[in-house]
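Much of our argument rests on the idea that a fold can be written as discrete symbols. In the encoding step, the backbone of a single protein was reduced to a row of integers, each denoting a local shape. We regard such an encoding as a compact summary of how the chain folds. The record that follows shows the chain in one-letter code together with its fold in token form:
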Amino acid sequence: MHVLLLKEPREGGSGPDPYIKELASRGHKATLIPVLSFTFVSLNTLSDKLFQPEQHGGLIFTSPRAVEAVKMCLEDDERTEQWNKDIKDKWNAKSIYVVGKATAALGEDTNILPLLFPCGSIKREVLPTALRENGVPLDTLMVYQTAQHPDLEKNLKNHFTEQGVPASIAFFSPSGVKFCLETVRRLSGQQLKQIKFAAIGPTTADAMTAEGLSVSCSADKPTAEHLATGIAKALQ
């Protein structure tokens, strides 16, 4: 059966997208359509903060784009030399947090210096609120803006015209639901109720439910294997 994945391409790697690969191993053909586009902003400000590690108690990353923004700040040869010479070691001596189990330890951080939090224009307030309630200071800096992919509607229309209505459609973010759902509804017509809708996790599932969609499966963990397993079961 055909599965439509509403997500961005694999981050900086060659070979097939892991979600397409996992679904193929379960007998399902998948197509990926990019939903979001990103514009980086405030990189000069981020760069200044990165080169003053003594001003912060650590770093928080909640998206690959934030990591990419940091890498872009280090592309200049002189900056790279300075970073490798002494700045990198100073950051490595601090706490670096990423989304996942390590985030739970943030509430135990008693460092009085603020944590540097490069983030996007669309961010949930759960983490900042939790840190604030636990007395952890946060220096939030928006380093990229999220918008709808310019070719999204055209790509969706072409896909439905060429492939027909998918057996399953997977959403990977609340933003994806916001930007895609109206077009998906229009193109699916009366067949909308036949589609098995899947979510990468509970936050996305909540956004789908809020829009009146019936969520057939939500991945136990946000991985290709877990989502493919859920979709395969829903399509049985």
Observations:
- The longest helix spans residues 77-92.
- The beta strands are 2-6, 29-33, 36-40, 58-61, 95-98, 115-120, 138-148, 168-171, 196-199, 215-218.
- Confidence is low (pLDDT under 50) at residues 101-111.
- The radius of gyration is 20 Å.
